[in-house]
């Protein structure tokens, strides 16, 4: 039979030009491999610990009380009010729950909606490297150019000259993730003040991702950039309850911004996600209103102990950790593991010790991170202990 050379309709169908660049994250593929071999998954940043009692109780009540329909596009009043109260109490940020607070589908939904509302294709946005992959991909998806400013390897100190020289007339914003995934850097007040000065000089927005704000160690203080002089009007403060209340699957986050921006961000959030799940908004509100300060102090203490446990096992295994000041990940130098690159080293580790970690290259541009792996310590005690035992057996 003769083959037809006529193009078919299917040949003309294609993915968007950006789609091939937005690929499954390395974290997801390591998770699949880890499940296959029955390993301990330190690749994924999921805290599957028990959630606080008021959070669960109120969400279940809300379902039975019939709060199962769409909410107002900026979220339910009790949650907006609880967020405003928390921002005042813990962050020193004064916001009006009517018009300056938006409940979002996680911090992820908050950043996406803010980027849709405030950035145009071709704009440049600075982010610090190592970065969180979703930040990079959010920019790429919107045809915004990410400009990575490397932090000093290992100490993660900010080099201001590098930041200054990354700013061009096309720069519209800087993304700050503090405490940071994957390196655990907590930006110091002096660093934030320097970024704030540049943002004001060059008329830049600052998007902050503060999802790990309650995970800070050794007495380190978290500072919300919006509280610095002159920063409230240009800072989009993004955070959420996924990590604090161990409810990553609930999709409850929030964003606080000047009312000049918040309305449009809300419309884009509505367009993309409609609303954060209604009963879970009530659960999150109860957590914010009812949990005492000791709950948050307890989180830091508990995770600091987990950090120390993992860092000590990594050191014993000859995989040198860079000790994080916040968040719940450790980057370790794994030069000693066989493998031509970070992905191969991650697979060697999974094969040899049944511990899954993420290739460092997922968090860097330009081929950096080949000798690094990221390990997550937000794990149940028994799982973390098993991972540490397995790492110590590594030859
Ligand atoms: N931001 C950072 C820096 C993260 O590491 C994560 C999750 O790993 C998220 C946001 C996701 O937050 P959410 O579940 O609120 O969308």
Automatic annotation (TrEMBL):
<dbReference type="InterPro" id="IPR015421">
    <property type="entry name" value="PyrdxlP-dep_Trfase_major"/>
</dbReference>
<dbReference type="InterPro" id="IPR051326">
    <property type="entry name" value="Kynurenine-oxoglutarate_AT"/>
</dbReference>
<dbReference type="InterPro" id="IPR015422">
    <property type="entry name" value="PyrdxlP-dep_Trfase_small"/>
</dbReference>
<keyword id="KW-0032">Aminotransferase</keyword>
<keyword id="KW-0663">Pyridoxal phosphate</keyword>
<dbReference type="GO" id="GO:0005737">
    <property type="term" value="C:cytoplasm"/>
</dbReference>
<dbReference type="InterPro" id="IPR004838">
    <property type="entry name" value="NHTrfase_class1_PyrdxlP-BS"/>
</dbReference>
<dbReference type="Pfam" id="PF00155">
    <property type="entry name" value="Aminotran_1_2"/>
</dbReference>
<protein>
    <recommendedName>
        <fullName>Aminotransferase</fullName>
        <ecNumber>2.6.1.-</ecNumber>
    </recommendedName>
</protein>
<keyword id="KW-0808">Transferase</keyword>
<dbReference type="GO" id="GO:0030170">
    <property type="term" value="F:pyridoxal phosphate binding"/>
</dbReference>
<comment type="similarity">
    <text>Belongs to the class-I pyridoxal-phosphate-dependent aminotransferase family.</text>
</comment>
<dbReference type="InterPro" id="IPR004839">
    <property type="entry name" value="Aminotransferase_I/II_large"/>
</dbReference>
<feature type="domain" description="Aminotransferase class I/classII large">
    <location>
        <begin position="40"/>
        <end position="389"/>
    </location>
</feature>
<dbReference type="GO" id="GO:0016212">
    <property type="term" value="F:kynurenine-oxoglutarate transaminase activity"/>
</dbReference>
<dbReference type="InterPro" id="IPR015424">
    <property type="entry name" value="PyrdxlP-dep_Trfase"/>
</dbReference>
